[in-house]
Write the structure tokens for this entry.
Amino acid sequence: MQFLSTRGGQPAPSAAHAIARGLAPDGGLYVPETFPRISRETRLKMAGENYARRALTVLSALMETFPEKDLREAVDAAYASFPEGNAAPLVRLDDELSVLELWHGPTCAFKDVALQLLPHLLRLSKREAGIREETLILTATSGDTGKAALEGFRDAEGVRILVYYPAEGVSFLQKLQMMTQEGENVGVFGVEGVFDDAQTGVKRIFSDPDTAERLKKEEISLSSANSINFGRLAPQVVYYFSAWCDLYSRGEIGPDETIDFVVPTGNFGDILAGEYARRMGLPVGRLVCASNRNNVLTDFFRTGTYQAVRPFYTTSSPSMDILVSSNLERLLFEAAGRDGNRVASWMKSLSEHGSYTPEPDVMQALRCGLAADWAGEEETREAIRDAFVRAHYVMDPHTAVGYSVFRKDRTHARRTVLVSTASPYKFLSDVLPALTGKAVEGDDPFVWMKELETLSGLAAPASLAELAGKERRFTEVIRKEDMKNSVFGFLGLS
Ligand SMILES: *Cc1c(COP(=O)(O)O)cnc(C)c1O
């Protein structure tokens, strides 16, 4: 099966080429030429299987290019790093709502579900596309992606990975997670400044002709681990099926019953995977796009204009502090009847004027099966408290944005699954005050960890608790101007 570019340019001949390339040469994102159907019979059979087998069914339909044996090994290896091999346990809160916990992987955020598998997919893709060059992954991170990519790619064959985090822009625990990263092929630098400084620096390296030439001589090609790669999107489709299967196998829904999902959204990758699951035949009713105070998506669905020129707010859900939602482009492509020229013109308008306004028929198609709302900071705190009081359930601020949006909407016709994207232990300085009504004391997150354990009776994830005693391998903070040199230093070429 071919993969089309959302901007209408040359298709990629297979999923392997789409994954190895990442972005299409015309700047578009790759989408499958057709959505394979998972039949009712297969779906009901999947309900009796474990997560890895469910993943194999969905992924081999989406990426038929890989031999099933290879895909099976990849999936088994990737999901062995989750407790009992389950990347998406479903927890029932009450008669209306269940929570899909996607944060039991090595870095305690949902990015693990895709980034534990991506290195395997990249390896298979390079082999199939006949690419022998070494891959250098460069990523700027606002916290979760960088660490999840480091864990996924550590000691992966034919790959080296270098991550830049903003020295002033990540939480202490997130910083510690990166400083203590293990693996022989990894590098981490703090960059003076905020996320945008690190991000701009990485983009500059990607477009620097001198860097390109020197890397080419060394037979190294640059790649990024961000969520526009189809290899990150595909693994996310699986957990929508898995949530439905769990509800069905527990007798909470019937064999043809439709369910809703509420998804805390930033770059639109997570919720888009839900839309892909629907197109593959999963009975999905509404997908609810939940944003924080950076509510550009809510405004877009309401007004019909995507307006990226607006104030930027730093919130307690930093992984959703995004003004340009890259993966929305894939949904626009579908809503525009797969007319890449129209998508290209909107993206041109976005880069030139910071906004675009699709025609009313496109907006109507976009709104079909999708709802959008947002929660402010106070509402997010209240939601964390409310879930604890009502159900003795502790959620992180990202998940709480989704919970708040769910509670505000009183029209629940169907059984709903709230997609939970991070462990509350990753965001202690926001979660604890929301629960206790008091500011946290001191500045030691390991003391706060104990406090939340006492309060909730829920043990802190071992991977976070162990950080205190781990060797800090990467402590260097560099200036933005020195990022390019750091690449060559890391490669031993300077
Ligand atoms: C990345 C992330 C999100 C947003 O997911 P998108 O796919 O970018 O919409 C939400 N919550 C957490 C904790 C994340 O790390």
Summary: The CA atoms of residues 4 and 11 lie 4 Å apart. The chain has a mean pLDDT of 95.
